[in-house]
Design a protein that fits this description.
The protein has about 220 residues and is mainly α. It is globular, with a radius of gyration of 21 Å. The protein has one domain. The termini are far apart. The chain contains 9 helices and no strands. The relative contact order is 0.10.
Length: about 220
């Protein structure tokens, strides 16, 4: 029995390390748009005239932001590996104590990066005087582009940098491989899922931000 337990623990540890390798890379890609959203949208509001990017540089970074944005919600599709991991390990404690927590944190961090990226964009647009209907339209466009990006990444195996390194094949896929009934339906499902999950996570994130702000305000006005 002890030897069986040791073997299960070793197997669980090896699985954890294996998952950590690709999860770390995918989270790195997911955090790129969040970092860019801070550079493009948040810092200008915080620092004002002290922080000003060259217009050309800002435009280039914005295009990079759009190109890498789908990497954040892409982590949701990595849940297909969860099914394979569960089939591979039939031990209940391995599934509950190792596999589920690892995938939960992975998807939570990745998708939260997506939500925060768009929240930063929304705040930036509001600071520029955009009306609410145009801001909602911008969010929906972001979801649509991300849905297309997720499909290109998951099913056609393209990466964000293929815009530069493999542009002809990417354009060919956009014009030929996405016009079929199945791709359009799949992208539509991804779009609807992203829209719903984003709205839910956005409310939670804004609620947490508001609570943190209230706590900080209470600390500032409370006597020392």
């Amino acid at each position: 029995m002890i030897s069986t337990l040791i073997n299960q623990m070793d197997s669980a540890w090896q699985l954890f390390l294996h998952n950590s390798d690709w999860m770390a890379w995918n989270l790195f890609l997911a955090l790129i748009p969040l970092a860019l959203s801070v550079i493009l949208f948040t810092l200008p509001q915080i620092l004002g005239f002290k922080y000003k990017l060259n217009s050309f540089l800002w435009g280039v970074l914005f295009l990079v932001f759009i190109a890498f944005l789908p990497n954040a919600p892409y982590v949701l599709t990595d849940l297909i590996h969860l099914v394979a991991n569960i089939k591979q390990h039939n031990s209940l404690w391995v599934i509950m104590l190792v596999i589920f927590p690892q995938y939960f944190l992975f998807t939570l961090i990745g998708f939260t990066a997506y939500v925060l990226s768009l929240i930063n964009l929304v705040k930036f647009l509001k600071s520029k005087g955009w009306q609410q209907k145009y801001i909602v339209t911008a969010e929906l466009v972001a979801h649509a582009l991300s849905a297309i990006g997720v499909y290109l990444g998951r099913f056609l195996r393209f990466n964000s940098w293929d815009i530069i390194t493999d542009l002809p094949n990417l354009i060919n896929s956009l014009t030929n491989d996405l016009i079929g009934k199945r791709p359009i339906m799949t992208i539509s499902i991804i779009f609807v899922g992203l829209t719903i999950l984003y709205w839910v996570m956005k409310q939670i994130s804004l609620g947490i931000m508001l609570r943190i702000k209230q706590i900080n305000n209470q600390r500032e006005i409370s006597p020392t």
